[in-house]
Amino acid sequence: MRRRVGLIVPSSNTTMETEIPDLLRRHEAEHGTGFTFHSSRARLHNVDAESLARMVDDSARCAAEVGDAEVDVLAYACLVAVMAQGVGAHVEIEDRLRGALADGASARAPMVSSAGALVRTLDALGLRKVAVVAPYLPDLTKLVVGYIEHAGVTVVDSVSLSVSDNCAVGRLDPADLPGHVSRLDLGDGVDGIVLSACVQMPSLPAVQQVQDGTGLPVITAATATTREILLALGLPAEIPGAGAALGTPVGAGAR
């Protein structure tokens, strides 16, 4: 049976509809599952507080549209838009989007968000001190750091790439990520790395490389979201070579 995966994405996003299907195709090859993908887009050009708030306001429309496709799970694939609404905002927003599905064909579909997926994955993996790479301007990175810390995880260090145009974020080269990680302070008990604290910054080709190179569990917005999609569907959240969020423990990827 092919599962229908619904995605709500920023209109300028070019990454989540690439990385999540890539990961789930790997899952299909490993486990024999099958997926189709169905998206609705909310307008977003620049990553600033006003634009992010407008996008969140538009999310219920997107949920209702995707719900018409009778999806089996719905993922709100924008991390910073949710986090910018205040600490813990993913709980209220996930509930609101479930409500938008309540009267439609997808009324029973589970709802996940990238913001909620990130903090829940950190908790599930027992990661309590992390370092973070983000494409945002420093003020937005500080907001994301505060959101993660409110969830009980200490952010020991972070790198901001200071890119405000969302399409430009999608053109960042994941081959540069190991170099950005080299700028992080990975001492003081750091036990994990958030390699991409953004659904738009490409990172998938570097996830396992950075995990193997640092000897630390690595997760991203995309791998955490994919993990929760799989768990919501009752499927094993295990994809070889995709880092700790998807079941590859430290050391296993280099074998």
From TrEMBL:
Protein name, UniProt field: Maleate isomerase
Positions of substrate binding: N13, C78, L79, V80, Y136, N166, V199, Q200
Alphabetical UniProt keywords: Isomerase
Remaining remarks: Reaction is initiated by nucleophilic attack of cysteine at the double bond, yielding a covalent succinylcysteine-like intermediate.
Active site: C78, C198
Function: Catalyzes cis-trans isomerization of the C2-C3 double bond in maleate to yield fumarate.
Pfam families reported for this sequence: Amdase
Record bears the keyword Isomerase: yes
Group of enzyme by EC: isomerase
Keyword Isomerase: yes
Known EC number: 5.2.1.1
Modified residues (S-(2-succinyl)cysteine): C78
